[in-house]
Amino acid sequence: MARITILTLLILIVINSRAQDIGYAKSIVSRLASPELKGRGYTGNGNQLAADFITSEFKRIGLKPIGKSYDQKFNISVNTFPGEISVRLNNETLRPGIDYLVEASSPGIKGKLTITKVNRKDIDTQEKQVNLINKAGETFILIDNTLKFTEDKELNKKIDEFITFLKLSPQITCKGIIIYTKEKLTWDSSTTQSVRPVIIINKELDLSRLSDIDLDIENKFIRNYKTQNIIGTIKGSVVPDSFIVVIAHYDHLGQMGAATYFPGANDNASGVAMILNLASYYAENPPKYSMVFIALSGEELGILGAKEFTDNPLIGLDRIKFLINFDLAGTGEEGIRVVNGSVYKDKFDLLVKLNNENQLLPKVDIRGAACNSDHCYFYQKGVPCFYIYTQGGIKAYHDIYDKPETLPLTEFVDYCKLMVKFFDAISL
């Protein structure tokens, strides 16, 4: 009898270690954030390559598709930068992603253009703003934004609204905008193309010497890019017609030019690693409720994959017992924060209780409702859900520094253990 007990214990330890395997998590993050997948965006087939990899993992683990395919296909519009990106100021070539960014909605442009320089005090009244538009003509307007945070709130808002007008208005003749800043460079994605290019520069410059800018920016606006969510399931052993759902978006920002990509290790290769680890665990430990694992596309473009799934659900949304969205799962030195924690307080209290009893994460913080990731559309359709993200550690976000080699995955194993305990507890 003692031998059987020990053997059973050893088997459980092996299964548990497979499910919460830091080596497996690191391999997932490294693959998804590798140069070969080009930032999992919409140039160089990066998004599709990522989807193919996740599908192969679903199959290997033993997840079953809902219907005939793991894919839920849909179309998006996206502005991309697949080719040349070059920015030169007074014959000095700047480094993309390090010295500057091209705003995501920018059109392409090529040529050498004169610069008209202003600071925020030069555009703090309507009269000054009109004078700038007339003076600038068809030049590039450079706005020194470095003193932005010394202004009072109302003036700050008024100047920012004028800068937005400069960026977007088709009724003015300036060729483009340069925003000179000391802030961190943070990129984004866009489903639209604007009327003129915007360049954000944070390299230390002597503005008095600047007179022209030499640009070569190739863009391609795609109206109907075909992308997909990837869905796999494990049938519940007791209540197969009700679901616990785990989601994570796999897309990221892609490339800004052929030579610069945004790896997206924490955002959100780490979240995909979490759902794959959980899938591995429940493939070997059949759950009481059916488990559905969804890798969503289009999050960076406006949580479009989640919108597609909730508009055209492959399972009854009213049969989802609970859903957790994993986004930014790669640190944890300061614990986790739970969006919707105050909405579903009983579930939040359960999570805290399990964490305290098992001494897993440093802290479990509460937060209210926020439409800031893929859970949002599910929540709006009445699905009880959390969005959980890790806190502390590296600050890389939407930049070229969010890399696998610097992502610590500090609390990943204990985070995964806590989620297993939570899902098992709500299945009782």
Describe the structure.
The protein is of the alpha/beta class and 428 residues long. The chain folds into 2 domains: 268 residues, Aminopeptidase; 133 residues, Glucose Oxidase, domain 1 (3-Layer(bba) Sandwich). 32% of the residues lie in helices and 25% in strands. The protein contains 10 helices and 18 strands. The strands form 3 sheets. The chain has an 8-stranded mixed sheet with strand order 1-10-14-11-15-18-16-17, with helices on both faces. An 8-stranded mixed sheet has the order 3-2-9-5-6-7-8-4. Strand 2 and strand 3 form a beta hairpin. It is elongated and about 75 Å long. The N terminus is likely disordered.
Can you give the helix content as a percent range?
25-40%
Structural class: alpha/beta
Distance between the termini: 28 Å
Q: What is the count of β-strands? A: 18
Strand content: 25-35%
Give the helices and strands as they follow along the chain. Answer: HHHEEEEEHEHEEEEEEEHEHEEHEHEH
Number of helices: 10
- Order of adjacent strands in the largest pleated sheet: 1-10-14-11-15-18-16-17
